[in-house]
Design a protein that fits this description.
Blueprint lengths: L3 E5 L4 H15 L6 E5 L15 E4 L13 H20 L3 E4 L1 H9 L4 E2 L4 E10 L1 H5 L9 E8 L2 E2 L7 E6 L2 E8 L3 E4 L7 H10 L11 H8 L8 H11 L1
Parallel strand pairs: 1-2, 1-3, 3-4, 4-11
Antiparallel strand pairs: 5-8, 6-7, 6-9, 9-10, 10-11
Helix pairs in contact: 1-5, 5-6
InterPro entries: ChyE-like (IPR044992), Class_I_gatase-like (IPR029062), GATASE (IPR017926)
Protein name: Glutamine amidotransferase
Keywords: Glutamine amidotransferase, Transferase
Length: 240
């Protein structure tokens, strides 16, 4: 089996490593078969896509709609645009989570802004008819709980894309471009331990009032979120 490539953008080691560990756990891959590249730390290396089964883009604190951006974010965005040019043209297997939905959405011409941001917590995600028929969502219930926490979101589905899932406060929770490129607004990799780690690491990043951290952790710690990781399992099973 060819390995999968995971592209990461988190500069905070604790959050970055926790995300990678979660991806390994839910995909069933080991470090040799899920090769991580941390884009925030160095330019994207030359990639031979023929050497990979698919590409996974993790989340991160970059905001596509931010009025000012760091030099690192501008570089990462430019590198991802160039890569997505090729991925979309080839209809190459891709799964973007949270930051990935905005990245693919912007690339495909949709507006990403703060209209449909969601506070940190659990939301019910409902599959569309197309979602219920999609192989990457095989075995998922029609509605399932998922962890979210994002300041911005796609305002609409990109032209020509297929809407796969929505939530009450965020109409675009998951879509597919062509046959093999997917993006989710919710986090398919997160369990309770994972979201608690993110809440602590990103206390001062504007996702919530910092003084409410303990309250938010107490609330999410009561949640039982079990279905979203199946998306990662299905994605790898389909394209391995």
């Amino acid at each position: 089996m060819k390995p999968f490539l995971m592209l990461a953008t988190r500069a905070e080691d604790q959050a970055a490593d926790d995300e990678y560990d979660a991806m390994l756990r839910w995909t069933g891959l080991d470090e040799g078969s899920l090769q991580r590249v941390r884009l925030e730390s160095a330019p994207m290396p030359a990639l031979d896509l023929a050497s990979y089964s698919g590409v996974i883009l993790g989340g991160g604190p970059f905001d596509a709609s931010a009025p000012t951006k760091s030099a690192v974010q501008l570089r990462v965005e430019a590198e991802l645009r160039t890569l997505l040019d090729t991925l979309v043209e080839r209809d190459f297997p891709f799964l973007g989570a949270c930051y990935g939905v905005g990245t693919l959405g912007v690339h495909q011409g949709v507006i990403v802004d703060k209209t449909y941001g969601e506070p940190i917590g659990v939301v019910p995600v409902t599959l569309t008819e197309a979602g219920r028929e999609d192989p990457v969502l095989a075995g998922m219930p029609a509605t399932f709980d998922a962890f979210v926490g994002h300041k911005e979101a796609c305002r609409d589905v990109p032209p020509g894309a297929v809407l796969l899932a929505s939530s009450p406060a965020c109409p675009v929770q998951m879509f597919r471009v062509r046959t093999n490129l997917y993006a989710t607004q919710f986090h398919p990799e997160l369990d309770v331990d994972g979201i608690v780690t993110r809440i602590k690491v990103y206390q001062h990043y504007g996702y919530y009032p910092p003084e409410t951290m303990d309250e938010i952790i107490s609330r999410v710690s009561q949640e039982l979120v079990t279905w979203p990781p199946r998306i990662l399992t299905n994605f790898v099973a389909r394209y391995a």
